[in-house]
Amino acid sequence: MTAIRLYNTRTRSKEAFEPFDARNVRMYVCGPTVYDRAHLGNARPVVVFDTLFRLLRHVYGEDHVKYVRNFTDVDDKINATALARQEAGAPGTLEDLIHQRTEETIGWYHADMDALGALRPTKEPRATEYIGAMVAMIEGLIERGHAYEVAGHVLFDVRSYPEYGRLSGRSVDDMIAGARVEVAPYKRDPMDFVLWKPSDASLPGWESPWGRGRPGWHIECSAMSYELLGASFDIHGGGIDLAFPHHENEVAQSCCAHPGSDFARVWMHNEMLLVEGKKMSKSLGNFFTVRELLEQGYPGEVIRFVMLSTHYRKPMDWTAEKAREAEGVLRHWRALTADAEPTGPDAELVEALADDLNGAGAMARLHALAKAIASNPQKDCFYEKGVFLASARLLGLLDEGMGGWAEGVDLSALAGKLADLRTAAMASKDFAPVDALKSALIAAGVEVRMSKAGVELVPGAGFDPAKLEGL
Ligand SMILES: Nc1ncnc2c1ncn2[C@@H]1O[C@H](COP(=O)(O)OP(=O)(O)OP(=O)(O)O)[C@@H](O)[C@H]1O
Ligand SMILES: [Zn+2]
């Protein structure tokens, strides 16, 4: 069995991955707060953990991996969006408008992430479906002396959990010094965080032992992961921006609610997608959505290609240059494998992925495999193409279902024309028309292969179909 090694934020080292149960490998990833379209940064954890999901399925078997990614559909940002719609005159109660907003956003999210070739997780729980589990967990925390009720709120008592801060490697005192914590007079410690808060009549709320209210964000993930994956599971993922406080708080809640359990054994965090050196984020306003890119004509596969080409633990930028290159390469690869049937993925590529999900290494291997096929035009390379295609698909690329490509350009007519010109030139001894067409094709990024057997045209890395017009 392929040995997987993963970098664990908790131990700050790369470790051999050993699931609790190889027949039931379990992963939880923090999903989106569904109040608006996903921006390109939000797509990075989706692509990263989808690639890990694919690798785990390859190694342990499709039916032996469970991937849970939640939808946070209780959040003040969602309430604010719905309220703004109501104030703008939209009909319906606030609850109706909230529901409409979350439904709509989940639909968009699915469409956008499907376009990136991301498989749907095994389960996609919504926070609103697990309020009972959250209330039960909070009650348990109060009973065990880890939480207290005050002024209609329930707060987690960070001083009751000596390990608090271990995941992100800080002490409570350092955190207080460095963090912008919400100061509330009723908190025993400034780092104590909300498990439950009251809702007034204008806000969504659920009955609870502490009155009508709603859960805090952190408890949502603790409760949903417990319900669907159990008290101890294998991998917990998300963006590095969530490590503190969100994940630190998840650890505290879950470990205190289920003493003796591990919660998540491996913590994985993707680095940020940046715009001019800053994290792409809604609050900074420096974002563009996945949908905008798709509408500009970038196939989802191109976005995925660009993301995979940088290691997930390195920050990355999106540039039009990278996208153009990716598009050329993918066109070339699609043409190269047009007649191929996927077999099994290349061992070296699997090894790269198994080494802490080295997507950049895996992509380098794909390039090398493609090069070996393209530089061997005498052979049909049927076997090699099958391995190449299976390898690309393990990365979620070159899938049949991946849409977004402009109408396929049919190079066969141009190949026929070039062959005819050559035949005519043999008789007339005037090769100028042949050379002119050949140069134009090369200028458009097409690889021209002329042999006695005939003419073959393959889109190359810089292929630009617009330049073929009029040829
Ligand atoms: N710029 C980014 N690069 C990579 N991942 C990101 C980026 N911004 C957010 N994420 C990740 O996207 C996922 C969804 O996050 P969430 O819905 O909380 O984001 P958000 O609140 O919409 O984003 P923002 O941080 O822009 O306010 C999380 O795993 C988060 O870490
Ligand atoms: Zn979470």
UniProtKB/TrEMBL annotation:
Give the main location. Answer: cytoplasm
Q: How many and how are cofactors bound here?
A: Binds 1 zinc ion per subunit.
Q: Which InterPro entries match?
A: Cys-tRNA-ligase, Cys-tRNA/MSH_ligase, Rossmann-like_a/b/a_fold, tRNA-synt_1_cat_dom, tRNAsynth_Ia_anticodon-bd
In chain numbering, where does the motif 'HIGH' region fall? 32-42
The superkingdom of the source organism is Bacteria
Keyword annotations of the record: Aminoacyl-tRNA synthetase, ATP-binding, Cytoplasm, Ligase, Metal-binding, Nucleotide-binding, Protein biosynthesis, Zinc
Which SUPFAM superfamilies does this entry report, sorted A to Z? Anticodon-binding domain of a subclass of class I aminoacyl-tRNA synthetases, Nucleotidylyl transferase
Q: Where in the cell is it found?
A: Cytoplasm
Q: Quick one: which residues bind ATP? A: K282
Residues covered by the tRNA synthetases class I catalytic domain: 17-326
- Catalytic activity annotated for this protein? tRNA(Cys) + L-cysteine + ATP = L-cysteinyl-tRNA(Cys) + AMP + diphosphate
Q: Tell me, what is one Gene Ontology molecular-function annotation carried by this entry?
A: ATP binding
An example Gene Ontology biological process: cysteinyl-tRNA aminoacylation
Record's GO cellular component terms: cytosol
UniProt KW Cytoplasm keyword: yes
Per UniProt, the enzyme's principal EC class comes to ligase
EC number from the UniProt entry:
6.1.1.16
Residues involved in Zn(2+) binding? C30, C221, H246, E250
Q: Which cofactor does it need?
A: Zn(2+)
Q: Which family does it belong to?
A: Belongs to the class-I aminoacyl-tRNA synthetase family.
Identify this protein by name.
Cysteine--tRNA ligase
